[in-house]
Specification:
The chain has 447 residues and is α+β, with helices and mostly antiparallel strands. The protein folds into three domains: 113 residues, CBS-domain, CATH 3.10.580.10; 173 residues, Reverse transcriptase/Diguanylate cyclase domain (Alpha-Beta Plaits, 2-Layer Sandwich); 151 residues, Alpha-isopropylmalate synthase LeuA, regulatory domain (Double Stranded RNA Binding Domain, 2-Layer Sandwich). Helices cover 35% and strands 28% of the residues. It has 13 helices and 19 strands. The chain is elongated. 39% of the residues are buried.
Length: 447
């Protein structure tokens, strides 16, 4: 699905009336660093004035002397693609395009909006950004001192739908859910993404109460979904975290804070599957859900949702003339798995990811397959570095799902690759790792 105009347009529309002076319009343009202004008369768009047009007239003249009524006739719909909007602007030589829906001006699409959206990585199935863009947006809000809320949506029994109805039908469900989420969220205060597989996340500047209202809207809309005039019959479990603070977080790293909120919301969504309401706020379970900190790995094994977690035991990198050998060790429940991968001298990150996947395979039954698709290094806002990985997980029934994980590099970029891969897979690993490990009594006998 293509990126839409309403995903990138400016919704805060500044305008002048026909009686406004050119001086007023110019001050507004300069003060807000705009290139053009719509001229509105009684809620109706009657023209456009641009900076270069205004320079030719006396400042005391009304803007009608400089405006172009013909430009008001060139508009774009909010559901048009960004490519169509850019083509329209190029064809008519415009730097700003009114966005009109049902005769009402709902936004403006400018060349700056197009430039800001260029290069965004979108999921081709749903047209939503992947989690990298959501992370950047949320970190900017936190860095600016704003509190955010995470709404984590996980479809129920989606794998069974895929198996019973086929992948084409499953893809249509994901597309329809994405449309529902897009319609319910507000780009001015929410950043929606496809988190991975059948999971969607909205990072928001809404309060906890506002986020809960959004969750209710999403849950009810998904329950009411129809395809081919028949109820789909799928539901969603939604976890919520954040939105509770009213003062800035002291000395908090924005990406570390975001990781914590994502962890809490993800775990809450898992527990919400057992609730009739299908919604759980991280602070509401038994008064308050424990704050578990990093979703990335601790130095020692610990529990995660009742299961043993896989922890990093260590890694080594041996450089040779034309290749690099990477060995990764992972530990869970006292059991150690090690794997080595050899790659070219410029493929260390990929080698780390592949070796980590091979280690994980040692904890999993042979019917589970992991395939590393991509490992990438991102620099965000010129100051933060992030490792992201994409992994394909194939279950015993042959169902495949793409999982996405990320980790802030902090001081160890290589360890971050291992953490990112585990971040992608940890919600799937728990039950399978638990089955592969000996019971507590067996461990005592082994000791």
């Amino acid at each position: 699905m293509a990126q839409l105009v309403r995903d990138v347009m400016s919704r805060k529309v500044l305008f002048v009336t026909p009686s406004a002076s050119i001086r007023t319009a110019m001050e507004l343009l300069r003060g807000q660093q705009l290139e053009a202004l719509p001229v509105m008369d009684g809620g109706r768009l009657v023209g456009i004035v641009e900076t270069l047009d205004l320079y030719r007239f006396n400042g005391e003249f009304p803007v009608t002397e400089a405006m172009s009524p013909a430009r008001a006739e060139v508009t774009i719909a909010p559901d048009a693609s960004v490519v169509e909007g850019a083509s329209t602007m190029l064809r008519h030589g415009l730097r700003q395009l009114p966005v009109v829906c049902n005769g009402q001006l709902v936004g403006l699409l400018s060349d700056r909006d197009l430039a800001a959206s260029w290069g965004s990585v979108l999921d081709p199935l749903t047209g939503l950004p992947w989690q990298d863009e959501m992370r950047r947006w949320a970190a900017r809000q936190l860095a600016a001192g704003r509190e955010i809320t995470i709404v984590f949506l996980d479809l129920n029994n989606f794998g069974a739908f895929n198996k019973a109805r086929g992948h084409v039908y499953g893809d249509r469900i994901l597309q329809t859910v994405a449309q529902v989420c897009r319609a319910a969220t507000d780009p001015e205060r929410d950043c929606l993404c496809r988190y991975g597989g059948d999971e969607f996340v909205a990072a928001s500047t809404r309060s906890a109460e506002g986020a809960r209202a959004l969750a209710v809207t999403l849950r009810d809309a998904i329950r009411a979904l129809t395809l081919e005039d028949r109820p789909v019959g799928i539901g969603a479990a939604i976890g919520i975290a954040g939105g509770q603070r009213h003062v800035p977080r002291p000395d908090a790293h924005p990406y570390a804070t975001l990781d914590d909120l994502l962890t809490l919301a993800s775990q809450a969504s898992t527990r919400a599957k057992e609730l009739p309401e299908s919604i759980l706020a991280a602070e509401s379970q038994h008064g308050r859900m424990p704050f578990v900190g990093r979703r990335f790995l601790p130095d020692e094994p610990s529990s995660w949702d009742g299961y043993e977690r896989v922890a990093v035991d260590g890694y080594t990198i041996s450089r040779r003339r034309q290749e690099v050998a990477v060995t990764v060790g992972l530990r869970a429940g006292g059991r150690l798995q090690e794997a080595t991968n050899v790659r070219g001298p410029h493929e260390i990150e990929l080698a780390l990811a592949l070796a980590t996947a091979d280690c994980l395979a040692g904890f999993l039954p042979p019917q589970i397959h992991l395939r590393v698709e991509k490992a990438a290094h991102w620099t965000i806002d010129g100051q933060y570095s992030l490792i992201s990985v994409v992994v394909t997980w194939r279950d015993p029934e042959g169902e495949e799902e793409q999982l996405v994980g990320a980790s802030l590099t902090r001081t160890d970029a290589y360890r971050a690759v291992i953490n990112a891969l585990l971040d992608a897979t940890n919600r799937r690993l728990g039950p399978w790792v638990a089955r592969a490990l000996p019971s507590g009594s067996e461990r005592k006998r082994e000791a």
